[in-house]
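QA checklist item 7 of 12: single-chain prediction sanity check.
[x] sequence parsed
[x] length recorded as 134
[x] structure emitted
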Amino acid sequence: MPLYDLMLLLDPNAPDERRDEIVSQMRGAIEADGALLGQHDWGMRRLAYEIDHRGEADYRLFQFEGPPELVERLDHTLKIADGVLRFRIIRLKPGSPPPPEPRAQSARPEPREEAGTAQVAARSVADAPPSRGR
């Protein structure tokens, strides 16, 4: 049977129970008709671009072997599942290395100051022409 990677990007706004339910459904479907070789929880990670106005997603990776019918069933189920932002099923070449550990994300920038707490120059100073040194 061919080897596949299934990468799930789950909605961070979905309740934890829903995300766990999706993961258990995928695990059950894979184990019913194929062989689950690995399951990796990469956690909440920043997206390269927003998807449905979300800047982060909960990343989950499954490595499995299974027939083409299993892949079709997973594809259909994930297309209609609430809580899934994106997914990708990739057929791997025989002898492919295991997935790498995810890189640690860089520290997040400090949150911006709330409006009204930052000091702003008075309007008259901001609009004044530059002074000329005499």
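[x] summary fact logged: Helices lie at 16-33, 68-80, 123-127.
[ ] second reviewer sign-off
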